[in-house]
Amino acid sequence: MSAAHVGTNLTGLRDHNTALVLRLLRAAPDGSSRVQLAEATGLTPQAISKIVARLLATTLVEEGGRGASTGGKPRTVLRLRADAGFAVGVELDRREATVLLVDLTGAVRHQVVIGRGLADELPRDLVELIANRIREAARTVPVGGDLLGVGVGCRGPLDHANGVLHRPAGLPAWDNFPLRSALAAELDGLPVRLDKDTNAAALACAAPGHTAYLHLADGLGAGLLLDGSLYRGARTNAGEFGHQILQLDGPPCSCGARGCLEALCLAALAAGDSATAARLLAVGAGNLVQLLDVDRIVLGGRTVHADPGPYLRAVTAELADRFPDRSWQHTSVQLTPAGPAGVAIGAAELVLAPLFGRAVTGVA
Fold first, then answer.
1. CATH homologous superfamily, domain 83-200+343-356
2. Cβ 156 vs Cβ 240: under 8 Å
3. Contact 100, 89 (CB under 8 A)
4. Tell me: the pLDDT tens digits for 33-47?
5. Distance CA 311, CA 197 (A)
6. Structural domain boundaries in the chain
7. At what angle do helices 179-186 and 123-138 cross, to 10 degrees?
8. Cα–Cα distance for residue pair 193/218, rounded to 1 Å
């Protein structure tokens, strides 16, 4: 039995156990029986029965027929009811925004892409525009479903704890703007969670162990999942991967430094040289693996998704050169399974994660 799926029968941890059961049901699209849940969690059959009874009463879980017989009475199958709850996920980039609605299983039910972003609108105007699109998404929630909140993945730097942007490069109008509270006020107090776009996208490809998600679009950043949990750093601004300096006398970067990886990558892309951009990204990825010894590198962002091959090949080759002993130090390289909407999907996960026992702080 996996340590991550071990419950406790102590009454003081009832909420932990409930979240654990919900998490297991979410991971079992074909459903699970009470006996299977007891085996997977280590909880007693009596404890599982009480948890399931509470969940059935809340309509989060439903009974869905009988499973195959194993010699005795067929077991009743339990399933997470996808339509019981919904979350809105939002991605805010320099020139584009995405708003989508997901159900409890994470399936996308509604999606709209807006050709306006942080560089195109004043903060209050963009907040109003996004709020209108969120309200449109909310109107697609079926009768009986609850809208649990809104998650936003936004370009950094930002203060996740207070929901405030902090000197985002090239976007002076957004410096110290209280994005989280402004959007919550526009939405009449609907819970809003805000995180860096890279952190949100990392949540959309969560896996056991250590993961570094690298995002190349209008900028270049990283989201870090260490031991399966988001690492945000002392000021909640970890992951400014694109601002490692690779060339001391290099071109100026929008952050004020020179020779940053992001500036070099974007310059190569502007010149139509995607091969050089991929090679630069690979060098940065190798530096990160040497620093953190992660299990996997996951690539995403509009630029990568437009032509993923060169980036996957370059990062794989760089890691093979730096770490030739694959039997001891192997780091896999893959494209994010969440696809081009990974930031918005992960932003919705900022809302859903606590329901399934994954701690996510920062809410208005």
1. ATPase, nucleotide binding domain (3.30.420.40)
2. yes
3. yes
4. 999 999 999 999 999
5. 20
6. 3-80, 83-200+343-356, 209-337
7. 50
8. 22
